[in-house]
Amino acid sequence: MTGAEAFRAAVARLTGAGVPDPARDARLLLAHALGVTPDRVMLALQDPLSEDAATLFDAALAARSARQPVSQITGRRHFWGRSFRVTRDVLDPRPETEGLIAEALRAPFSEVLDLGTGSGAILLTLLAERPLAQGLATDLSPAALAVAQANAATLGLGARARFAQGSWFDPVVGSFDLIVSNPPYISAAEMAGLSPEVLEWEPHLALTPGGDGLDAYRAIAAGAPAHLRPGGRLMVEIGPAQGADVAALFAAAGLAEIRVLPDFDGRDRVVAAIRPA
Ligand SMILES: C[S@@+](CC[C@H](N)C(=O)[O-])C[C@H]1O[C@@H](n2cnc3c(N)ncnc32)[C@H](O)[C@@H]1O
Fold first, then answer.
1. Residues 90, 118: contact at Cβ < 8 Å?
2. Which of 66, 107, 152, 198 could form a cystine bridge with 194, CB 3.0-4.6 A?
C-alpha cells in the first residue's frame, strides 16, 4: 500500500469514528508513523508504506478513533515555538495560553513562579525567553511534575527551573517578581459539555476544581500577596466568563492595576494585577 492509499483509508476511518478534522489528523498521524515532520508527508505519499510504519499508523488511527488527542498519540505539542512532551498526566498546552506568555514577557522578571505547571509549558517558555531568569514550578500531581522536569531537561533549562509538589502555595517558599498560573477553571456543571478528547483523555485534576470553577483563583488570590515582591506581577488564565469574578477576587486580596485581557478571538482570557509597592 502506498502512503496515499493509506492516507485515504485513514481519512475514511477517522470520519467514521466522528473525529472532527479527519484529514488534518490523518496527515499528522501519518507523519508520526513515518518519522517525518508534517510538512514532509506529501513527499512520501507515492512510496510504499513500510511494515513498521503501517503498524504504527494503524495503532495511531485506532487511538485517534477512540478519540485520544493527537498530541497524546504523538507525545509532542508545539507551544511558543518549542516542542513539549505531552502524556495523559498533563493538560495538552493550548494556543490560548500563549496570551499569558505574551503578557508576562511585556516586562522584565528575574524570579518566576508557575502554579499548576502541568507539562511545564508556561514556566519553561518564560525561562527559555529570558535567559537570566530562574523559576519554580508547582503541581499537585507528581506525575505531571515528572513530565515538566523531563521537558526542562530536554530544553536545557534544568539548572534554572525548580519543581515542588503540593497544593497552590503550600510548597512555595520565598517571593517572586512574577507569578503565573493556568489553573483548572471549568465548573462542575460545564464538564459534561466537553468533547470526548478532553473529558475522557485529559486529567480531570487539570480541568476542574469542581463547584463554580473559581476555587483555584480563590487560593491563588489569597496566597499571592505574601509571595509577590512589591510591584510584582500576578497573571492567570481564565475561562471567558470569569473575568469579573477573578478581578473581584484579586481586588479583595489587595492587588492593584487589575486588567482583564482578551485572547486572539476577542474573548476574556487573562487577568493581570500587581502587588502595590
Ligand atoms: C489547566 S492545567 C494547566 C497546565 C499548564 N500550566 C498549561 O497551561 O498547559 C492545571 C494544572 O493545575 C494542576 N493542579 C490542580 N489542582 C492543583 C492544586 N490544588 N495545586 C497545584 N496544582 C494543581 C493540575 O495538575 C494541572 O497540571
1. yes
2. 198
